[in-house]
Amino acid sequence: xxxxxxxxxxxxxxxxxxxxxxxxxxxxxxxxxxxxxxxxxxxxxxxxxxxxxxxxxxxxxxxxxxxxxxxxxxxxxxxxxxxxxxxxxxxxxxxxxxxxxxxxxxxxxxxxxxxxxxxxxxxxxxxxxxxxxxxxxxxxxxxxxxxxxxxxxxxxxxxxxxxxxxxxxxxxxxxxxxxxxxxxxxxxxxxxxxxxxxxxxxxxxxxxxxxxx
Length: 213
Ligand SMILES: [Zn+2]
Description:
Helix content is 23%, strand content 23%.
């Protein structure tokens, strides 16, 4: 059973945010709030990552899920959405360039998001930053006041960044990383692995330097 981390135990800023750690090739799942929870990424939705028991343990019932944001339409981030949709009808947020891969199979309110859009949560608003490169419609989510970045597979701790395919995608990810490197970020919540809880901007700048070499 995937590990659930109450992120408040690591940073008081993250009070009300839970992390369901991805097992194997499964994305992290972040759960923001509880009464009107917003979930960021949904994992691979296989038997090792079944989602509902974990949401039950966190205290989030199907009717409490108000939104699901998918950072990009790779199956290890989006497949768990269909397990959520078996019991719940949240709004589903995806960038239009990635939404087209799953739109026909979503029987819920699909909202195409784009750069600069704001997604409200119980805790704080999240600004959408379009960060193509890993996929065409990849996004990150930024909370300016608390300097939090949900970074999907665009950037990871310690100077790592998302895999890309081809020269134009390489230029895109370098651009995306330069955009992220200009943000003031303390807390980095990546799509895989453990988050960074302070000075995350230095990790992002390192990724930008590594990618632009
Ligand atoms: Zn990915």
